[in-house]
Amino acid sequence: MKITHVIDTHVHADHYSGGRALAKKCGGAYCLHASNAGRVNFPFEPLKDGQRIDVGNVYIDVLHTPATPRIRSVCW
Predict the structure, then answer these.
(1) Is residue 47 a contact partner of residue 62, using CB atoms and an 8 Å limit?
(2) Radius of gyration over every alpha carbon of the chain, rounded to an integer in angstroms
(3) CA–CA separation, 5 and 28 (whole Å)
(4) What is the pTM of this model?
(5) Residues 25-72 pLDDT 10s
(6) 34 near 43, Cβ under 8 Å?
């Protein structure tokens, strides 16, 4: 099995995600919702609401579900 995408549902200052390190180690794309573009200072593959990601014999549908104006999240 090959990891092709590492997806974080959201980012904020009170927790650390190992997603970027995992993506780098396995060569997969590191993904966040596109609304995070102004909130982080590192590259990522932007995801958009309604986007479908093909990951072999299954797929992931991106559903943007913002909780508040300050917190962004992605669910699938």
Answers:
(1) yes
(2) 12
(3) 5
(4) 0.80
(5) 999 999 999 988 888 889 999 999 999 999 888 999 998 877 666 655
(6) no
